[in-house]
Amino acid sequence: MSATVLVIGGGIAGFAAAATAKEAGADVSIALGRAGATFLSPGVLDFAQRGDASPLTQIEKSVFSLLDGYVIEPTELLTIAGTSRTADGRDETLLSVSALQEDGAVAVIGRTASFDSRYLAKAFSATTKRSFVALACDAIQRYADERHWNDAELASRFDEEERLAWLARILGEGIQRSTTKIAGVLLPNILGTKPGVAARLSAMMKLPCGEVVGTSNTPGFRFLEARDRALARAAIPVRRGDVEGIDFSSSGRVRVTFADHVADVSRVVVATGGIVGDGLRYVPSEIESAGALPLSSRATFEPSFRTNAPLPIIAPGIADRPSSLFGEPAETFRLSLTAKPSPFLRAGFDRRALPRGILVAGAAAGEGTTWLEAFRSGCAQGSNALI
Amino acid sequence: MREAETNARRRYRARYVVNATGAWGPLTAAFGGIHSKAARIRPGKGIHVVYDRRLSNYAIVADSIDGRRVFLEPWQNVSIIGTTDDDYFGNLDDVTATSEEVRYLVQGIARVFPSIRTARAIGTYAGVRPTIYDYGPDEDSLSREHLIVDHAVDGAEGVFSMLGGKLASYRLFSQEMSDRLARDLCPGVACTTHEIPLPGGEKIIDPFRLAGEIETTPIAARRLVFRHGTRANDIGVIAREESFANTIVCPCEPVTEAEIRYVVRNEGATSVADVSRRTRLGLGACGGMRCTVRCAQIVAEERELSPRESIAQAKEFFEQQARTRLPVIGTVQARQEVLHFEQMHSLFGTRT
Ligand SMILES: Cc1cc2nc3c(=O)[nH]c(=O)nc-3n(C[C@H](O)[C@H](O)[C@H](O)COP(=O)(O)OP(=O)(O)OC[C@H]3O[C@@H](n4cnc5c(N)ncnc54)[C@H](O)[C@@H]3O)c2cc1C
Ligand SMILES: Cc1cc2nc3c(=O)[nH]c(=O)nc-3n(C[C@H](O)[C@H](O)[C@H](O)COP(=O)(O)OP(=O)(O)OC[C@H]3O[C@@H](n4cnc5c(N)ncnc54)[C@H](O)[C@@H]3O)c2cc1C
Predict the structure, then answer these.
(1) Which of B289, B334, B352 sits opposite A275 (nearest CB)?
(2) Rounded to 5 degrees, what are φ and ψ at B237?
(3) Prediction pTM value
(4) DSSP string of B220-242, one letter each residue
(5) CA distance readout (Å), B213 to B206, B247, B253, B291
(6) For residue A291, is pLDDT > 50?
(7) Which of B298, B301, B295 has its CA nearest to residue B314?
(8) Span A65-94, average pLDDT
(9) Which domains are present in chain B?
(10) Low-confidence ranges of chain B (pLDDT < 50)
């Protein structure tokens, strides 16, 4: 008998859960709601496979291969901060320095609000082993008004074949004029809102061309496109819109309420993300109850949807935050760029205490520190949905 | 003196020394062997909470739970609520707002402006007032007058301390101090303070014309003129002559690249934090997420610092700002804070 499974949330965890359940023979559909972490994130794969983490399983590999434009392999990437960093995989649009030929410099091109080719070429030369040159042909903006556009807006222009050919021509002229041998080309986050643009440019140039790791959300757009193609390919039905409620009945069925629809299923996989995905909300009592000074300022998290089931939340660190009158002051919690993941990121639904019929994957379960971690969590819960 | 940048120590000799170190006044006096009681103040901590936009067009006052007057006020591009006034016994070099101070203010304002509870707070300011010393009265009843102490009576001829005062009265206070020194240094010369405009205040600049000249938005140009007056023209020259210098680096405020270069070249800014204090870069709704890294690069370029120093500066500013936000963090802000940190981890490769 095949289980009816509804996956809630279309981030990497939700996608992986739906595709895995489908592969295992479930009757599965997926609810795609508002923007979440994936949509907002630079969307690079990261350190998750480091150390003793096991390699991808067969199922994980086949699910991953559904997504256009992503590779898993150790790589070195360049960031707009002017340094390189390692990653265990990448959005193919990002330039992988490790994949470039040893001899030859990396040409850095373009100027936007966050990307200055001259500065970055110097900085990368100083912080990495390779040499970098800023090419004289700096224009990536074709019209004057594009100077005031953000990277994502500009990126949408390069989805167009004609515009990409224009860029290839400009780049080609610049490289020809340059006296240095060029091994690859680094650009801002402008190589398309759809997967495949960097590959097309590289083919035109006969040189690896790719993006820097930046703060633009174009990688998020590319993920959404890749995800939708993959869901179509796997024939997984999609329902767009936010889930408003999840209700459990004594018969063991789960009712999922949308604005205009109610679904009745045997299993749900909640993959609604952590607090960036808006699956969980942080509700500090001092803000909401400023009128009636509470005796304790226990910070709380709550689900972003209505539910009749107790969905316990674990939030290491911050949930038990006492106020300074009654204990440790709130402000001694420091957010730091060197410390472990912030307590906010670790918050999630407690899987040990979940009612029957409900599973939680990815950042919603506090398993979303990296994209790959969220992916694997999704695969695991997708196959659990059939048990 | 120790130079903050290089840590180099140097000795200087002067006939007159003016101690104008605000709440640190007694500590500074003590450096000169003067008993700190001779330059005594009663440090009063105060905080403000900053909101993401102008919540009202007018200042609104309310009574707090202890009957003090607190206010909500449009200021720059934002609104602030304030303020507290409490005796302070802590470290003057590490003053931060606490969530309880925030609650006290929000509670007071909410009585007349209930939607303050759901407004989006984006940060806090905390400072210490150098109030003139008095034992007994509660903080609000203390005098806001200023005082010049001539330490000749303490055996330190030529040393003066400027104590108390308000921001509002700083010109008057400085004038009195200058007059006192001028009495000895250039007797008979008349004071001209009241005739000289503050730098940049010489004449009125049309921001819309400037916007056209440097091809930027009218909003960016208006903010530039608001901050720099006639000096906005000098910034305009950089924006026109240096390639891409009219690029908007901080979109919240907004702040252009030319302005960052200008304050580093001409106003002694040496770090992102300095640039931020002069331009409001990074103090808007996005909390510096979009501009911090780029600003640090421009500062590094201007000052010929290494990429590593540039990154260290960006991190420092970023963490410091996050600290000022923690006591006001609410639902939306917590979400943004995570987004913020994730983004930086991704850029710096610091995710573990
Ligand atoms: C700025 C940023 C940068 C990052 N950089 C990196 C990086 O470089 N490398 C790396 O490995 N990781 C990175 N991460 C982490 C990575 O993005 C996350 O770990 C991962 O995306 C989490 O995936 P998820 O599917 O669990 O959650 P999400 O991607 O948040 O997906 C949850 C989905 O559920 C949807 N949803 C929420 N509520 C509802 C509802 N009620 N109904 C329907 N749908 C709903 C949301 O709209 C969202 O689409 C970054 C994260 C951020 C925020
Ligand atoms: C929350 C709050 C709200 C306020 N609101 C108002 C208001 O609305 N209107 C108003 O008029 N006033 C207001 N004030 C008061 C006003 O800000 C102060 O009175 C004023 O800033 C004092 O100026 P100052 O130059 O004496 O001291 P400060 O501005 O404190 O300057 C002292 C300087 O000395 C430096 N320093 C200290 N030690 C050393 C050393 N050893 N070597 C070198 N430098 C040193 C410090 O770094 C500092 O920059 C407010 C104060 C606070 C805290």
Answers:
(1) B334
(2) -65, -45
(3) 0.93
(4) HHHHHHHHHGGGHHHHHHHHHHS
(5) 11, 14, 20, 24
(6) no
(7) B295
(8) 92
(9) 17-41+141-195 (no CATH), 44-129 (3.30.9.10), 207-348 (1.10.8)
(10) none
How is residue A2 written in tokens? 């095949």
Nearest ligand, measured from the Cα of B49: 2
Output the CA–CA distances (angstroms, integers) from residue A42 to A272, A308, A340, B348, in the order listed: 18, 35, 20, 13
Question: Which ligand 2 atom is nearest residue B126's CA?
Answer: 1
- CA closest to A41 among chain B residues: B343
Angle at alpha carbon of residue A76, lines to A75 and A82, rounded to 5°: 160
Decide if pLDDT at A289 tops 70.
no
C-alpha span between A284 and A127 (Å, rounded): 42
Nearest ligand atom owner, CA of A46: 1
Q: Tell me, what DSSP letter sits at residue A334?
A: P
**Structural domains of chain A sorted by starting position, each given as residue range(s) with its CATH number in brackets:** 4-41+234-384 (3.50.50.60), 69-219 (3.40.50)
Lowest mean pLDDT among A231-240, A280-289, A378-387: A280-289
Q: Is residue A366 lining ligand 1, measured as CB closer than 6 Å?
A: no
d(CA B134, CA B128): 16
Total residues found in chain B within this entry: 352
Contact B319 A297 (CB under 8 A): no
Cα–Cα nearest to A20, from A248, A252, A350, A361: A361
State residue A136's pLDDT score: 80
pLDDT digits (tens, 9 = 90+) for B232-261: 999 999 999 998 899 999 999 999 999 999
Given an 8 Å threshold on Cβ–Cβ distance, is B297 in contact with A116?
yes
User: By alpha-carbon position, which residue is closest to atom 48 of ligand 1?
Assistant: A36
For chain B, the straight-line distance linking the first and the last C-alpha, in angstroms and rounded, comes to 41
State mean pLDDT over A19-47.
87
Which long-range CB contacts under 8 A does A258-264 form with residues at least 24 apart? A258/A31, A263/A6, A263/A29, A263/A239
Nearest CB to B335; choose among A275, A291, A329: A275
The residue written with tokens 């500090």 in the block is A284
| Ligand 2 lined by B23 (C-beta under 6 Å) | yes
Q: Residues B256, B262, B264, B268: is their CA dihedral positive or negative?
A: negative
A240-250 pLDDT per residue, tens: 999 999 998 87
Selected for mutation to probe chain A from B335, B339, B344, B350 (highest A CB count within 10 Å) is B335
Q: Do A83 and B322 touch (CB under 8 A)?
A: no
Q: If you count them, how many residues does chain A have? A: 387
Instruction: Tell me the sheet residues that pair with A261.
Output: A258
Q: Quick one: average pLDDT of A137-153?
A: 87
Return the percentage of chain A with pLDDT > 90, whole number.
Answer: 61
Determine the Cα angle at A21 with ends A15 and A22, to 5°. Answer: 90
Interface predicted TM-score (ipTM) of this complex, two decimals = 0.90
